[in-house]
User: Fold this.
Amino acid sequence: MILVAIGSNLSGPWGSPRQTVERAIHALNQFPLHLLAQSSLLHTKAYGLENQPDFVNAVVQIETALAPHVLLRKLHMIEREAGRKRGRRWGPRTLDLDLIDYHGLKRTQRGHVQKALVLPHPGLPLRDFVLKPIAEIAPRWRHATNHKTASALLARLH
Assistant:
């Protein structure tokens, strides 16, 4: 199962945060990506850096033959098309696409590579705005490292 988290809290070339998330979902259903499932849109407070606009979040399940690192480059390309400019960690953004899981693959960061792909996404167990949508579209999904479902991880947060 390949899961991608989507978030936006700034308007940009694709419109409002809601419009941007909706257009990102459409972009994630263009060859060589195929959309299998999408969650409802979720409105949430900002995570990490709280003094910023609320986010619109979603999670999608996709299918692709792209390797994980190539898929990550594709996600970054879609972010740039939506006006994403990388800046402050956890800061406001027009679009954020995070590769959450890639068929249960486990990859850890080696050395000090800043943009290394780590799977499953390291912040996942702490982010209810990602866990809730996963529980909605993939209730049988399990975290590749701790083997908990999204619902079980959510219960630990509350």
Notes: The chain is about 25% helix and 20% strand. The longest strand covers residues 55-63. The chain has a mean pLDDT of 91. Residues 2-157 form a domain with the Alpha-Beta Plaits fold (CATH 3.30.70.560).
